UniProtKB/TrEMBL annotation:
<protein>
    <submittedName>
        <fullName>VOC family protein</fullName>
    </submittedName>
</protein>
<feature type="domain" description="VOC">
    <location>
        <begin position="3"/>
        <end position="123"/>
    </location>
</feature>
<dbReference type="Pfam" id="PF00903">
    <property type="entry name" value="Glyoxalase"/>
</dbReference>
<dbReference type="InterPro" id="IPR037523">
    <property type="entry name" value="VOC_core"/>
</dbReference>
<dbReference type="InterPro" id="IPR004360">
    <property type="entry name" value="Glyas_Fos-R_dOase_dom"/>
</dbReference>
<dbReference type="InterPro" id="IPR029068">
    <property type="entry name" value="Glyas_Bleomycin-R_OHBP_Dase"/>
</dbReference>
Amino acid sequence: MLGSAQIVAFVPATDLERSREFYENVLGLRVTEVTAFACVLTAGGVTVRITQVDQLRPQPFTVLGWVVSDIEATAVELVARNVRFARYDGMSQDAHGVWTTPSGDRVAWFTDPDGNVLSLTQLT
């Protein structure tokens, strides 16, 4: 029923201007609308709605991620834009913070200004 419907991803934020700066200028998403309640962007044909919330307790899992063709190059570019990649105990991550899954996919995690966990994945 919804298999062909357009997806909208929602990400909570306590400061829309700070989040807009990060998602637009650091990550490179395109802003399509800004209201007092949300900053709407697009990435890869998907709408990402950064929604204003009064309080936020970031979750310990990924809330939004991107599939990239070259995870090292993307990580290096993001580090140059002051993004810090997460390191997790018990996971063998390379110098860029990239973990290789048992199937060979490669994943790296970072956070937005509110602490929401975001990821990059390079599929094999």
